[in-house]
Design a protein that fits this description.
alpha+beta; Beta-Lactamase; 11 helices; 40% helix; elongated
């Protein structure tokens, strides 16, 4: 019996010695990099595993892996673990030592578990005294954790957590130690750096919403008061000069024209009859002038209604593209005389229309540099130059007051298309960084202080 007990006691003593040695080495590490290397590689002396990894909670990444000196952050294995660690650390059991398996992975990644990990993955959280999570040691192994191994691992977990918290605290104290020793010098250096930064010359810039519009569009307005019967083209459709674009309701005009033609026919017949009677009747001869005037008036009415009937079909005055809103918004809509319906413009002859808010207005001159960041392609701005600055603010689409600015593009670009919107960045004169940052507060102070 003594022979069987002695080897067991020797084995336990050996494992306790290994545990004490690992604790001593962990507390003797000088930085977190060395501690992480110790945790993922040398923990194998106490506990058997296939692979060990260290999850850094604050950085949100795997910071160490057993057997590897350098990690590839975008490797599929690292992306797989990072996604799951971010999920696991938000679980209620994240602060407890736990055995994970493929069942704890999401449904899309369960098939990948066997490719990257063993059957069991030990989640060993490392925490501060206040319970804040520092990171987690992940141990991939084939066998579940036995009770003696769990007891040893919990002791090792406390030692690693204590060493990590001490190193993190010492690094913060080291970085701020010279500030505590020489506070006046640190204050003077900070003030000098802040003053030098405030006197740094920078170029004034401002952002404003912008839209690409046609330079000289042909505006098609309603030639008469009527109802839109149909839009014969689609928005941004290419058209040729003379193409039919809009059809106005012509039924009322046709009825009025038919009535005017009948009135003309009656006036013409009455005039012919009176002319025959005027050969022998003096009173009929005296009524000729009035009948001629009535006949001419009826003819003028017919010509006028005929021209209006022809104008009910609006034609394209030039080549270009049709610019208007949704056709369904116009069908059946009554329009008054002179109301704008659509535009026909050259899609390549465009300019930039900018609405600069009053609160952001800065001194700008014609020819100032402008960059347009399109909403569809914000990574590659278009260059333009300022041409006109509105002298008076006008209401914008959102109800705010803004100055209207026009800019011309520096060169032709296939991305320039009428109707695209984005954000324009306008460059003004150089000024101090102090004035640039505190421009709005200084403007408010001038209003209240009067200087």
């Amino acid at each position: 019996m003594n022979a069987s007990v002695t080897p067991l006691r020797d084995k336990r003593a050996e494992r306790l010695a290994v545990l004490l040695q690992l604790e001593r080495r962990a507390r003797a590490e000088a930085d977190l990099l060395g501690l992480g290397f110790l945790m993922v590689n040398d923990s194998r002396q106490l506990l058997d595993y296939h692979e060990a990894l260290l999850w850094h909670h604050d950085e949100g990444r795997i910071s160490a892996c057993s057997g590897l000196a350098q990690l590839e952050a975008n490797a599929p294995f690292m992306l797989f673990l990072r996604r799951h660690c971010q999920h696991w650390q938000a679980q209620p059991w994240a602060a407890e030592l736990r055995e994970l398996s493929a069942a704890d992975a999401d449904a899309h990644s369960r098939d990948e578990w066997s490719e990257y990990l063993s059957q069991y993955l030990l989640w060993v959280p490392l925490r501060r005294r206040d319970g804040q999570l520092l990171g987690c040691l992940l141990l991939s192994r084939e066998q579940p954790l036995a009770r003696p191994e769990r007891a040893m691992l919990e002791l090792l977990q406390d030692a690693y957590a204590h060493a990590w918290a001490s190193l993190a605290h010492s690094q913060r104290r080291h970085s701020l130690g010279w500030l505590r020793k020489r506070p006046r010098r640190a204050l003077m250096i900070g003030l000098a750096a802040l003053l030098a930064l405030a006197l740094l010359p920078v170029r004034q810039t401002v952002l404003a919403p912008a839209e690409i519009v046609a330079r000289e569009p042909a505006v098609l307005r309603a030639p008469l008061q009527a109802v839109v019967e149909g839009m014969l083209v689609q928005p941004n459709q290419p058209v040729k000069a003379g193409d039919a674009l809009v059809q106005l309701d012509k039924r009322e005009l046709e009825n009025r024209l038919e009535s005017a033609r009948q009135s003309l026919a009656a006036a013409d017949a009455q005039l012919r009859q009176t002319r025959q009677q005027a050969l022998f009747d003096e009173r009929a001869k005296a009524a000729l002038a009035e009948l001629i005037t009535r006949r001419d008036q009826a003819r003028a009415d017919v010509d006028y209604l005929q021209s209006n009937l022809e104008r009910s079909l609006i034609l394209a005055p030039r080549d270009g593209v049709a610019i208007f809103d949704d056709p369904s918004d116009w069908i059946g809509r009554p329009v008054s005389l002179g109301e704008r319906i659509l535009q026909v413009a050259d899609p390549h002859d465009a300019r930039l229309d900018i609405h600069l808010p009053v609160a952001d207005a800065i001194a700008l001159e014609p020819g100032a540099e402008v960059l347009l960041f399109l909403n569809s392609q914000p990574g590659s701005p278009l260059q333009a130059s300022l041409q006109r600055y509105g002298y008076r603010a006008s209401p914008a689409a959102d109800g705010s007051m803004a100055y209207r600015l026009d800019a011309n593009f520096a060169e032709q670009d296939p991305r320039i298309r009428v109707g695209l919107k984005g954000t324009a960045k306008l460059y003004g004169h150089s000024t101090l960084l102090f004035n640039y940052v505190l421009r709005r507060p200084l403007a408010a102070l001038r209003v209240y202080l009067g200087w």
